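Record 1 of the preview.
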Amino acid sequence: MSSVPGRRPARVMLWSAGGLLVVGAVVAVAMVVGPAVHRLWNGEPYPATDPDQVAARLKGEVQRVYDEAGLGRAPDAPSQVEARADCYYSGLKNIAHIDQGRPDSRSFELRWQVTGVAEAAARSAQERTRLRLASEGWKLTHEFPDEGFRFEHPATGDLVDVGWYRATRVFAVSTYAPCGKVPDGFDEYRWPNASWTPQ
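->
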């Protein structure tokens, strides 16, 4: 018995419909599972950050500490905000990239120091900064016996370290901003907003 011309057999139509359902199911599963696998492999991304805003924040903080120190002289060497490649993958990819930072993310640090600072001057400066940070809501996270302390900003995660080292009589300040995803094309080696000079 011949089939009617122009009509597809019911079996072929069922196979076609079944194929479309399978393809649809595979696509749906991929849409759900794909991002989960991506997160499992790469880990959660760092929040987007604007390096210029971070630099302005860190420079403002070191300037305040410099003013509070009242040491009467400039730091030993010029300072600049350093973009550090120490932001690692938090997912399984970290196993394959041990000690290799993510190319799209940076943390930032700005430091200065003055040598030959007497202990009395250093301790007074530290106390002024400690009181100010505490009054602004920063949280004390570390005490370094006979040296200094570290405070963390509750909203940004920025850190401020203020130390004095008896052996060298160095008064040192460091500010740090945690990892963030930098914009495409960010070049820390040609970054005009990195330099800091005390006012």
